[in-house]
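Lab meeting tomorrow. Look over both lines:
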Amino acid sequence: MTGRNRLVIGSLIFVVFASSAIAIAFNSQPEDRWAQHDDFIKALPAKLQSSQGNQSEFNIVALARQLSEIRVDGMPVCTVEEVSAEQYIELSAVAEKVSVYPGINLQLNDMLDSNAGLSDCQFRILEVVAGS
């Protein structure tokens, strides 16, 4: 093998390793998998304030449906199934805080009166409202 061939082969090997290192570095950049969820949650207080809890503008059932469609690594961020017993216990504190919004309070009562009960996603929306 001549010196020129060694140089060409060495250069090719270097290019392959360098491009592999760059590809690995590029693909290993941290990805904010929760960004869609976080953006959705962050937007809720402003939406609540502008609607003053009016059901036509701040519909908990519709918002919970939107939240249930958000996926992180293929998994939903909440469930449409009924809340856990622990969440029902926490609900009294949440209900007290959301009572300042009559429209939210009416929606909560309607959800509790329904056969399906309160879903995990609906509870999570109410938690955000209670924290606003």
Q: What stands out?
A: Helices lie at 3-27, 35-51, 60-68, 85-98, 102-113, 120-131. The beta strands are 71-72, 75-76. Residues 35-131 form one domain. Residues 14-18 have pLDDT under 50 and may be disordered.
